[in-house]
Design a protein that fits this description.
With 576 residues, this protein is an alpha+beta fold. The chain folds into three domains: 80 residues, Cytochrome b5-like heme/steroid binding domain (Flavocytochrome B2, Chain A, domain 1), CATH 3.10.120.10; 230 residues, Sulfite Oxidase, Chain A, domain 2; 193 residues, Sandwich (Immunoglobulin-like), CATH 2.60.40. Helices cover 18% and strands 23% of the residues. It has 14 helices and 25 strands. The strands form six sheets. Strands 9-8-17-12-13 form a five-stranded mixed β-sheet. A hairpin with a 4-residue loop joins strand 12 and strand 13. It is globular. The protein binds ligand MTE and molybdenum atom. Molybdenum atom binds next to loops.
């Protein structure tokens, strides 16, 4: 509309975030976003651009935001930038000394050891040798998956960080971080966070193009989270549903059983099953989980403020984040500022679009509503280190990659393909006591041992929903033969064949385990005639429900490359 006025940039600059009447520009257009900010819960995002161009932000948002957002912005158009302030390309001139607004300028610095996929926003994963070296990932090595910039919360003001809780009846409660810490029972849970895009690059290599960040096997990490239980906070806020009446007293282990008495007036209340908990971060990222997940008396959905004994690092949600153990990490909303219990899922594209799985043939413009959002995670595993040959293995030990290797006092028993499962080797019976065919076999096996190359392999395995990893199968010959890896327990010591420990392991299977299991394997690569050749090393895991991984990526291929969980394969060339 040419009848609209033109504004000098100097005037636009005055309409900053503090002005009470914020404006932004896009190209040569000027928008008054005052009403937008008032109407949108995530309106403070756009406020970051107030007085300036929204285009640098737009570049970030177009990754995810639908064109309809632009249409909304167009309704706030009030005019154009004065011709005197436009360059020859029709873009607002940036005055000397006026830096182009960088939304990421206040992002924290990251550990140099992280493998960076994108800098702005930051997406980075630990490199394989460090990935599963420790049971709990050091905070500075924990993978980072940001959709936007890192919100700035001043250390001095963190205690006053506000969490808004809105209930289905419209009631709103506010908690400061300080209140959450002091008024609620603290809870600790060791849990993996894993992005649905973990190992996406494996699927791409095996099948073809996938959309999204091409993660290696490092979009997963494990930490001890500390915070308060979401269900305690919801109870305190006064949430009631037809089949769930909370005990008000904080510290109670479980909510009271459903009551059917008239006096509870339960008829007017919504059913738990029909509700969702929407979680929104300070930079407007949002997602949701079904309410029953939050209320599960065995559940451990946390509002976390600490990670591995330290305040949350900024990249991981400082000062408050949700942690939904066993679920896709996209639900563990960082920089948490708002919770809404609603009769619908979060309307964000991170809930309704990005984290869904279509069939291998369903590309193009899929019907987004056809399938549910990814919530509980399936099983996966990965190889994080392979060392071939005595020398390399010795070096790996020195470098600490195999520090928690099961102690071995004597060489592996003959007849066991690797001996890696036994720390106390049984003595092999004397060759002369055996039938001839077996003695022959032992001889040839011995020869193979001499002509083959030792290999050490490390990795992790994880399953969602609290299902514990019970077994990891490893093949060093492309899947012709298999052996079992040694699972390391949480105290970083290896299980061994000791009867009592095996029993302990089995008993433990009844419980829920939200952590990963790291594993170690030691075997031998057999070349034909003792000659070395490329070998394919494969790992696949089994969980307590006997779920296992698909053999190939073809069958689970999806255009977004989500949940790339097929057997993990690494080819090693032993000819050098
Ligand atoms: N929360 C906010 N506020 N913003 C985000 O971009 N990314 C989500 C989730 N929570 C995200 C978020 C996704 S997709 C993942 S995989 C995890 O955070 C990553 O958590 P991490 O960076 O602590 O590893
Ligand atoms: Mo993610």
């Amino acid at each position: 509309d040419p009848s609209l006025p033109r504004f000098r940039l100097a005037d636009v600059r005055k309409h900053d975030a503090k002005s009470g009447s914020p404006w932004v520009t896009s190209g040569d257009k000027v928008y008054d976003i005052t009403d937008w900010v008032a109407a949108h819960p995530g309106g403070d995002v756009i406020l970051r651009a107030a007085g300036h161009s929204i285009d640098p932000y737009w570049a970030i948002f177009t990754i995810h935001k639908a064109p309809h957002v632009r249409e909304i912005l167009d309704t706030y158009l009030i005019g154009f930038v004065d011709l005197a302030d436009l360059d020859t390309a029709g873009q607002p001139k940036i005055a000397a000394g006026e830096a182009l607004e960088d939304p990421f300028a206040s992002d924290p610095t990251r550990d140099a050891r992280l493998v960076v996929l994108t800098q702005k926003p930051c997406n980075a994963e630990p490199a394989p040798p460090q990935l599963a070296r420790d049971f709990t990932t050091p905070n500075e090595l924990f993978y980072v998956r940001n959709h936007m910039w890192v919100p700035v919360v001043d250390r001095a003001e963190a205690d006053q960080h506000r969490l808004t809780v809105e209930l289905p009846d419209g009631d709103v409660r506010e908690y400061t971080l300080d209140e959450l810490r002091s008024r609620f029972r603290r809870h600790r849970v060791t849990a993996v966070l894993q992005c649905s895009g973990n190992r996406r690059s494996d699927m791409t290599k095996a099948v073809g193009k996938t959309n999204g960040l091409q993660w290696g096997a490092g979009a997963i990490s494990n930490a001890v989270w500390e915070g308060v239980l979401l269900r305690d906070v919801l109870a305190d806020a006064g949430l009631q549903t037809a089949d769930w009446q909370p005990r008000r007293a904080i510290g109670s282990e479980a909510p009271s059983p459903p009551t059917t008495t008239e006096s509870n007036d339960g008829d007017d209340l919504p059913e738990t099953d029909s509700l969702h908990v929407q979680l929104t971060g300070m930079e407007a990222y949002a997602a949701s989980i079904p309410l029953p997940v939050a209320l599960d008396p065995r559940g451990e959905v946390l509002l976390a403020f600490a990670m591995n004994g330290e305040p949350l690092p900024r990249d991981h949600g400082y000062p408050l984040r949700a942690v939904v153990p066993g679920f896709v990490a996209a639900r563990s909303v960082k920089w948490l500022s708002r919770i809404v219990v609603s009769d619908e899922e979060s309307t964000s594209q991170w809930q309704r679009r990005d984290y869904k799985l279509f069939g291998p043939n369903e590309g193009g413009a899929p019907n987004w509503d056809r399938y549910p959002a990814i919530q509980e995670m399936p099983i996966t595993s990965a190889i994080t280190g392979v060392w071939v040959g005595e020398k390399a293995i010795r070096q790996a030990r020195k470098q600490g990659h195999l520090v928690d290797w099961p102690p071995r006092s004597s060489p592996p028993a003959m007849g066991s393909s690797s001996g890696s499962n036994s720390s106390s080797s049984r003595a092999a019976p004397g060759v002369r006591d055996l039938p001839a065919w077996q003695a022959d076999w032992m001889e040839s096996h011995k020869k193979q041992q001499q002509t083959s190359t030792p290999v050490a392999v490390t990795g992790y395995a994880y399953s969602g929903g609290g299902r514990e990893i019970v077994r990891v199968d490893v093949s060093v010959d492309g899947g012709r033969t298999w052996d079992q890896a040694v699972l390391l327990d949480q105290k970083e010591k290896a299980y061994d064949d000791d009867e009592a420990k095996v029993k302990k392991n089995i008993v433990a299977r009844g419980r829920r385990d939200f952590a990963w299991k790291r594993w170690r394997y030691e075997g031998r690569l057999l070349g034909s005639d003792g000659a070395s050749s490329p070998s394919e090393i494969i790992a696949k895991a089994v969980d307590s429900a006997y779920n296992t991984q698909p053999e190939r990526h073809d069958g689970i291929y999806n255009v977004r490359g989500n949940l790339a969980t097929a057997w993990h394969r690494v080819t090693v060339d032993t000819s050098s």
